[in-house]
Design a protein that fits this description.
Number of domains: 1
Order of helices and strands: HEEHEEEHEEEEE
CATH topology: tt1808, chain A
Radius of gyration: 17 Å
CATH superfamily: tt1808, chain A
Shape: globular
Largest sheet: 6 strands, mixed
Number of strands: 10
Strand content: 25-35%
CATH class: Alpha Beta
């Protein structure tokens, strides 16, 4: 019995952006292009949204001069990838990106619960291949911050895990000290 060959259609960033311009995606539909594949993103729960806001609030003062802290906005990473990281710190100001998306970042933060595999494997590998020096994965399931550094050959060679009570200093701002507890959303205490 013969089996049919199945091919996957890979998309370029140019094709992906044209699909968006032509209205192929419904308004508000959350999608991103990773290695030529268009992934539908799951809706955010409130804990995930709180993690994004915590990341923004912790990183904004540290990167207030000479950088733009962006939330869920595209990065143009190569020919076939346009992820929308939960938080990305890019050089310059928002005005530097009026005509095109940034092509790199000094730090990317992804907040992960149900998206843990996608964020760790697919996106982590993409960020390493793109030469992004530092990638943080806020793991809401285990309530920790996984820090990835030193990309080489498409993978991060340094990885460590931090928890509430620890301090993290971004490579691009080594003088800064961010309490990891400020990144991990806490549920309010019930009386």
């Amino acid at each position: 019995m013969a089996t049919a060959a199945v091919d996957t259609r890979r998309w370029t960033r140019e094709e992906y952006e044209r699909l968006a311009e032509d209205g192929y995606f419904t308004p508000g539909e959350r999608v991103e292009l990773i290695d030529g594949v268009i992934y539908e993103m799951t809706p955010q729960n409130s804990l995930h949204a709180a993690g994004i806001r915590a990341g923004e609030r912790a990183l904004q003062p540290v990167f207030s001069e000479g950088f733009d802290v962006r939330s869920q906005l595209p990065l143009a990473l190569g020919f076939d990838s346009e992820p929308e990281p939960d938080v990305a710190v890019v050089p310059g100001t928002w005005e530097d990106y009026i005509e095109s998306h940034p092509t790199s970042a000094v730090l990317v933060l992804e907040v992960a619960d149900s998206s843990l595999y996608h964020d760790r494997k697919r996106k982590g590998s993409l960020y390493a291949r793109a030469g992004i020096q530092e990638y943080w994965l806020l793991n809401l399931v285990k309530r920790c911050l996984q820090v990835y550094r030193d990309p080489k050959d498409g993978a991060y060679t340094t990885r460590f895990v931090l928890r509430a009570g620890d301090i993290v200093s971004p490579l691009a701002r080594p003088e800064a000290s961010i309490p990891v507890g400020k990144l991990i959303p806490r549920k309010p205490a019930v009386d």
